[in-house]
Structure formats: structure tokens, C-alpha cells
Amino acid sequence: MASAASVTSLVDEVNCPICQGTLREPVTIDCGHNFCRGCLTRYCEIPGSESEESLTCPLCKEPFRPGSFRPNWQLANVVENIERLKLVATLGPEEEDVCQEHGEKVYFFCEDDEAQLCVVCREAGEHGAHTVRFLEDAAGPYREQIQKCLMNLRKEREEIQEIQSRENKRIQVLLTQVATKRQQVISEFAHLSQFLEEQRSILLEQLERLDGDILKQQEEFDSLVAGEICRFSALIEELEEKSERPARELLTDIRSTLIRCETRKCRKPEAVSPELGQRIRDFPQQALPLQKEMKKFLEKLCFELDYEPAHISLDPQTSHPKLLLSEDYKRARFSYKWQNSPESPQRFDRATCVLAHSGFTGGRHTWVVNVDLAHGGSCTVGVVSEDVRRKGELRLRPEEGVWALRLAWGFVSALASFPTRLALEEQLRQVRVSLDYEVGWVTFANAVTHEHIYTFTASFTGKVFPFFGLWGRGSSFSLSY
């Protein structure tokens, strides 16, 4: 039986450094010290401790993060046991083992009344027909029940802890995804802002040019009109003077004067030339690239916010021996020299291919393949089912669990049931592969221009993996997102 002094010593060991009382819901911080959850929470709320950098351990002054509280279940169990010992120590051995009614030592337990009995109690008539056992014999089955309960409770606690760990990891993944999307929005709008500023400068410059051309033609028009008005004013003045002269002078050279006035035709100039007018009417067409770029921006932004960037790497266990993988497994290069690769059921032995290390069983994912082909080289990118053929000949078509695009020197083909050569506006060097597992789409696009290339439609039932094939000395590819 624990003495009062020993219990007091144990109690001192499980005191909270903040409230000086026994720990309640003990939690551990980064430096290893333990506190009551409530005390530490109130400590973090002290004015002047709002920033995480200013929070330090009340004991050792080591910095810690408020979100780093870790429940200390083992210490909580120790505290509970100490409290129980403390209670027993305060009762004393006489009060614990002696029947309060008869003053005799307690030896028995009545299972019907769940009462502890001394010899006198046992002989009393009220327990005569009951099941009475010695204390240890009666405690045995209850100990077993308690152990079963403890086993179940500990199992449930472990399950809760596993759920907590899993959900915390999930929260971290979601926070990472949100941070990535935030960075995407900032980056895309920064690019858009730069593009809009460039377009604004171009359009304003064109308007300035039109404005200058209009003013120039106005000046030419005013000069021409002023000259015409001056000439007509001179003729009018001459005729007015002629009409007031005597008949002899009026008739002198009258026919020549009239011919000169009648044959003088007024030139009717235009203030704005047809060419300038057409340029003004065509000005709205200058904004079409802006409209097209805005549409492309919105489509790209919605796509990138909808699809999760896949942080994939190449799986060396699946790589054909002719593929040289980089140390970070983000790049592969073709070599005619076979690598010393151990035999593996997952490894491709004829098709010079490699899979990503991780596959997908749901969701929307996207990644970019940067292709660098030598003359005569080719690269295959896409998605394959987990049970795709690894040994012998691999037929690259959907019926074999392969949904892929082949990039070769000078052309691109969709590897459908019957390969389809595709016409593209420019040579493809960066391919964006997008997987929508639930809908069953595998989409390929030009990662630079965002031009759609091809989309496969499938019904996925198991795990699928990003897939890559490479051929041709000097050819390589690398991964990004």
C-alpha cells in the first residue's frame, strides 16, 4: 500500500508549472514540458503574445507553436492512477479493510448485493442465500472484464488517434493545395496584369496615331479650303467691280471674263480620307487579340483551379534498362547501353517505358512533360492501368489499358484503336496531361499555348499511373506541373 508521503511525492511530479495544481488534460509542447491544456491555452491568449514567434515555454523559454500541442495520454493515465492512490492513502488501512458496522476485517464479497462483508456480515441472514466469495476470488472475473474493457477502450482510442493523424495529414494536404491555388491565382493575375498593361499601351498608341493623322488631315483640309475661298473671293470681287463699270468698260473682254468664271469649278475636298476613315472603323478589331487572350486566361485559370497539380516522380522499379533516370527521378534519357537493373515483375523488358511512382484511384490531376527529341526520336506520354503488360510486346492502345499520345520528329499521333495523326499549329515541346478519373477523361494540351490536342474517354475501375515511353539516342523528357 502506498504511503501518504510517497503519494505526495508523486503528486509533486505531475503538477502543472502554471497553476501548480495536478495536471488536467496534460499536453506536451515542442521542448518536452507538460502543462494543463486549459492553462497553456490561457497562457497563449495573454496580451502581447499574439504572434507565434513571441510564444516561449513558461519553464525553459524555448519557442513553441500554439498548434503544436500534443495530448499526453500516458501522463494522463499516470495522473489518474496517482489520484486513486492519493484517495487510498487518505482513507488509511483501517478504514479501507475494516467493516464499519462490526469492526471486523473484510474478507468476503456478496455478488448479489455487490457488498463487501466481514465474518459477522456473512453469517447474517440477509446474505445466507446469496453467492458469497472471498475478495480475491470475486475480483478475478471483474479483473478480466476490466481488462476486456481496457482492451476495447484502448483500441478505440488508437482508432481515434489514427483518425486524428489521418485527418491532420489530410488537412495539411488541403492547406498545401489551397496555398498552391493561391499562388496560381497570384501568378496568373500578375501575367494578366502585365498583358493588359501591354495591350493598353498598344491600343492607346494606335489611338494617338489616329488622333495625329486626323489633326494632320484637318490642317491640310483647312489649308485647301482657305485657298479655294480666297480664289472664289477674288472672282466675286472682280465680277462685282465689272458689273458697276460703264457699258463700254463692262463689255471689254466680257466673254473672257465670263468664261473664266463659268469654267472655274469648286473642288470639294474631304476632311478625312477614305483610308483614315476605314482605319477608324477597323479599330475595334485591334481589341480581338485581347478578347481572345481573356478567354484563354479564364479557361486556363478555371482549369488550373479545377485540376490538382500532380507532384509525380518516375519509378525506377518499372523503368526499362535502356532509360537513364536522374537522381531526383524527374528526368529520363534514352541510351542504347543497357543499365544493370535488377529483374522485377514490375519492370518493362521490351517496351522502353517507365511509370510514375504513384498512381490515382480518383480525382482530377494534371502534370506537364517537357520533351526534347533528337532527330528520329519519339516520346510517348499518357496514362495506363495498373495491370498493363510489362513483359513482352506492349500494344499502345486503349484496349490494352493504354491512353497515350506519341510525339515523334515532325508529327504527333493519338494512340487510339487506330492511331490518328494530329495537325498542330506548332511543334509540341511541352505537353500537359490531365486526368479526370470519375468522368473518364485523359486530355492532352499544349502546355505553352494551352491549345487542346486530344481527349480519350474511358471507364476506369482500378488504379491508373502516369506513363512515359522514350526512343532515340539523345532524346529525353522531364516532369513538371
Question: How is this structure best described in words?
Answer:
It comes from Sciurus vulgaris (Eurasian red squirrel). With 481 residues, the chain is of the alpha+beta class. Among the domains are: 4-111, 2-Layer Sandwich (Herpes Virus-1), CATH 3.30.40.10; 308-480, Jelly Rolls. Helices cover 41% and strands 19% of the residues. The chain has helices at 4-13, 37-44, 73-97, 119-123, 135-243, 247-251, 254-262, 274-281, 288-306; strands at residues 26-28, 34-36, 70-71, 108-110, 115-117, 132-134, 308-309, 323-325, 331-334, 353-355, 364-372, 378-385, 402-408, 411-414, 420-422, 430-436, 441-446, 452-457, 464-471, 476-480. Strand 8 and strand 9 (331-334) form a beta hairpin. It is elongated. The mean pLDDT is 84.
Task: Describe what is shown at a glance.
The chain is of the alpha+beta class and 481 residues long. It contains 9 helices and 20 strands. One of its GO terms (molecular function) is zinc ion binding.
Which percent range fits the helix content?
A: 40-55%
Structural class: alpha+beta
Per CATH, the architecture of the domain at 308-480 is: Sandwich
CATH class of the domain at 308-480: Mainly Beta
Q: Oligomerization state of this entry?
A: single chain
Element-level helix/strand string: HEEHEHEEHEHHHHHEEEEEEEEEEEEEE
At CATH level 3, the topology of the domain at 308-480 is Jelly Rolls
Biggest beta sheet summary: 8 strands, mixed
The Cα radius of gyration reads 46 Å
